[in-house]
Amino acid sequence: MELEIAQFFTIMLFALVVGVFWGTWFSLSRSIARITPRTFLEIGKTIIGNLARPMRVLLPGAILASIVTILLIPDRGSAASLFTAAGSLLMIGSLIITLWVNVPIDNQIRSWTETSLPSDWGRIRDRWEAFHTARTFVSIGALASVLIGILKLR
């Protein structure tokens, strides 16, 4: 029963994290280069304000839930264990991308105004977008791996 509870929380938290990343990528990132600096600042600051705190809980919580799930799988060498571990590692990868690239850029954006926008803001925006795309698809791979791991237990 503990394993099923851990799996449930792993799936739910992974899905929430992937949903945040996918939603932002699908709705904003694919067209981010076409929006004006003013709109970029307004949208960027709003999204950063809305997501910064919840993602501080969701992303580490998802990783923690997956680690608990791995520890509860009886056969450590099984496909279920290996796929779940791969999912956990991929989600850790998305956390690393977030902390090393996206959050530092978010912190820069928070301080920008239309008049203080750096001359290379487009390059910085494009870097954020490229790494956001990477973490989005890494997190999708994480969710897929965890789901395969859970299905392998059945």
Topology overview:
Layout: H1 2-27, H2 37-72, H3 79-111, H4 121-152
Structural class: mainly alpha
Query: Largest beta sheet, briefly?
Result: none
Strand content: under 5%
Overall number of strands = 0
Low-pLDDT segments: none
Q: Total number of helical segments?
A: 4
Helix/strand order, N-terminal first: HHHH
User: What is the rounded Rg?
Assistant: 18 Å
Number of domains: 1
Helix content: over 70%
Mean pLDDT: 95
What's the oligomerization state?
A: single chain
**What is the approximate shape?**
elongated
Distance between the termini: 14 Å
Can I get a quick summary?
This protein is an all-alpha fold and 154 residues long.
